[in-house]
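Tutorial handout. Part one gives the primary structure; part two gives the three-dimensional structure as tokens.
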Amino acid sequence: MYSRRTLVASGLALLGAGCSSLPFGDSRDEQDLCEYEAVAEPFDPVTDLPPTYNRFQRTLAHRASRHGSTTASYGPRPLKQASYVEFDDSYHYVELANSYTAELPALVLSVTWNPRQTPSPNATVLSFPDLPKSDQVALRSTVYGGLYKPQVHPETILDFSASPVPYPDGTAESTFVDEGELWVRWEGRAYQVTAHRTTAMEKLVHEYTAERVAESAESFRELISDRHIIRIESPTPEEQAILDAAVTDGYHETTQSPSRAWHRLLERLRETAFPEAHYTWYIDYDGEWYTLSLSSDESCTN
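Part two.
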């Protein structure tokens, strides 16, 4: 019953003016047709519901789970508005509680790299693993273009020039401050780092809270069943045809007037999507659990 699948989900068109029934004998351009889709995939909350965060996002979510709350001050909002996270064999509900602007300590850094540059014989050269944690985080943020972005080193050139980088806990332990200019060897590359001065900068800080909601995989499934699983009971024959097609090869319909069955199915689900689910619902249909994704390419009235 349970397997991880990649969902095909697209935006839901606004339900407003658009397609309408045509008088007999009239024709409609192809671009005016109403198109409807439905895709259903087997669903197991344990494997399919926790987001596929990168390791820095997971560290942040786990820190919130361990302490009940945490803050993030590097880059844009790092985690979803709300998500379920597995940590220490239990499950936690992690939610964005607040975002605010704060003044944080910072270093004005220049970080450069190109494939041809090498340290001079008398240069100070450090190894990335030997840097203090605060410098590691600062360098990751500059090299990756943000701490929570994909962890990819530049392929051609990096020129991060005299820009502030936040040090939320202060710069007292920074090696960069003491040396001024040095080189850091990191995964086969030599980055030239120059610390120009300490400063302060305004950053958007995101505060997350976490609550343990389940002690095991089985109790987590029970929780999701109670909170988010929608039981499709007594569907009409037309709704059943849509669901049966969605479960097998996917449902697709092109019409010259709105699909009443598709819209009735949507009305069963409209207010129950999980935050940031992107028009995907978790359903119990014929005794099996699925993710159901509905989409419409045209704004067709019911």
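Part three, for discussion. DSSP finds seven helices and twelve strands in the chain. Residues 1-28 have pLDDT under 50 and may be disordered.
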